[in-house]
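Minimal example, chain plus protoporphyrin IX containing FE.
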Amino acid sequence: MYTGLLHTHSSLRYVVLLLLVIVIAKSMVGLMSNKPFEKSDEKLTLWLMIATHIQLLVGLVLYFVSPAVIFGSNTMKDSVIRYWTVEHSFIMIIAIVLITLARTSTKKITQDKAKHKRVFIMSSLALILIVVAIIMSGRGILIPVRA
Ligand code: HEM
Ligand code: HEM
């Protein structure tokens, strides 16, 4: 079960990263060229949110079965154990909240430009956090599960 979950979680990162890049690019173009916030923009934030929530669910289950997550006297002293037990989930959950807000908080906005702006800012911050967190893991941003 652990191997399957790790591969699922590891592969889903590409979906999340790709959707994030598309959402950021589209909202930036929308913002700069004053385009209306279309149905496709709305759908993209939904797909991103669904992919990210699935990643959250898989990550949560993984947290309880992964040998990298260790609670003990060394948890905070050992940087690798600390990363997987504390830092990874903490940073990723903040990014997931931002991605969720990029969609849910824009629903209340009426002006198209303001919608693009909100999506752009929230998604960009989420992307930065996710990239920083994966770099911190030392496993490489685009490198599949280590052998
Ligand atoms: C631990 C697991 C999960 C948590 C804690 C979680 C949390 C949330 C929260 C707080 C919202 C509400 C946002 C709002 O309207 O203010 C939400 C919405 C949503 N979630 Fe999740 N979720 C989880 C798993 C999933 C999974 C596995 C999926 C899909 C397969 C999913 C799909 C959605 C969708 C489609 C919405 C509504 C999006 C919209 O129309 O704006 N979530 N979730
Ligand atoms: C956007 C959200 C997330 C992304 C992009 C992400 C990405 C990743 C990546 C790239 C790995 C390394 C997999 C490999 O070795 O190839 C990983 C591992 C892991 N993630 Fe996440 N993650 C996210 C959210 C979460 C959350 C919310 C949790 C926990 C609540 C979590 C728990 C874990 C655990 C336990 C591991 C496994 C460490 C191991 O056993 O080697 N992740 N994640």
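The pocket of protoporphyrin IX containing FE (ligand 2) is lined by residues 6, 9-10, 13, 16, 52, 55-56, 59-60, 62-63, 66, 68-69, 84, 88-89, 92-93, 95-96, 130, 134, 137, 139, 144-146 (CB under 6 Å). The chain has a mean pLDDT of 96.
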